[in-house]
Amino acid sequence: MRDSGAEMAAGASYAYKASLIGSAHRFELTEEGMSWHIGGRSGLWRYGEISAIRLSFRPVSMQQHRFRADVSHASGGRIAILSTSWQTAALMAPQDNGFRNFIVALHARMAQAGSRAELTAGLGHRTYATILAFLALLAVAMTGLLVRALAIGEFAGALFIIGFAALFAWQIGGFVRRNQPRSYSFDRLPRALLP
After folding, report:
1. Rounded mean pLDDT, 134-154
2. Residue closest to 43 by CA, chosen among 25, 59, 65, 58
3. CA separation for the pair 116, 53 (Å, rounded)
4. How far apart (Å, rounded) are the C-alpha atoms in residues 175 and 20?
5. Which sequence ranges are marked TM in the entry (predicted)?
6. Which of 169, 170, 163, 133 is nearest to 149 (CA)?
7. Where are any strands of DSSP class E within the chain?
8. What rounded mean pLDDT belongs to the chain?
9. Can you give the pLDDT at residue 10?
10. Contact 36, 23 (CB under 8 A)
11. What pTM value is reported for the model?
């Protein structure tokens, strides 16, 4: 069994490429705080100066299993940390273990420093409500099309609508379920938002 010091050391650094052309975004957890290097800029955010962390699930066409952590500073700065890295023009590689270890270690160090940061998970409340409203309208429209297809005897069309609805629910359902807005604590990170 590993002690907490070994766990913090395991995730003490993380790097990823946000784009194919740009340089790597590098992060390191030091005794003083989170050190970051993005492009030609760099800095050190003390653990007590980190005002908020938002974890979310953000799939993209090239990588359907992508997670994101938005780290905010008390001065208003914000850094996005992604769980994937560009490898080639057609390949975005997941970095699940490195991302998870770094995020867990960051939370552990912030808790140890007595941080009072706001920890939230998922999308913002307005964005989430807008998505739910859109999905409700889409469900009503699809139900209307299904009823119409069955009423006029277009069973092939009805099967197509049912298949499309099932595929859509499978693809979008995971995104909506994982990104439900909520708060969490340093000792209970949301498993659905870590790879």
Report:
1. 93
2. 25
3. 11
4. 25
5. 128-149, 155-176
6. 163
7. 13-16, 25-29, 33-38, 41-46, 50-57, 67-73, 78-82, 84-88, 91-94, 118-121, 182-183
8. 88
9. 53
10. no
11. 0.80
- At 89, the pLDDT band (50, 70, 90 cuts) reads low
pLDDT above 50 for 9:
yes
- Chain Cα centroid distance, residue 19: 17
CA within 13 Å, CB half, 103: 27
Q: What is the pLDDT of residue 63?
A: 63
What residues form DSSP beta bridges with 68?
Answer: 56, 82
Which pLDDT belongs to residue 75? 92
Q: Which SS3 state, helix, strand or coil, does residue 119 take?
A: strand
Average pLDDT over residues 105-125: 94
- The amino acid at residue 15 is A
Q: What percent of the chain has pLDDT over 90?
A: 67
Distance in angstroms (rounded) separating the CA atoms of residues 52 and 15 = 21
Q: How far apart are CA 114 and CA 167, in angstroms?
A: 45
Task: Output DSSP code: residue 60.
Answer: B
Token code pair at residue 148: 């119409």
Give the pair of three-digit tokens for residue 81: 């940390």
| Side chain identity at residue 162, one-letter code | I
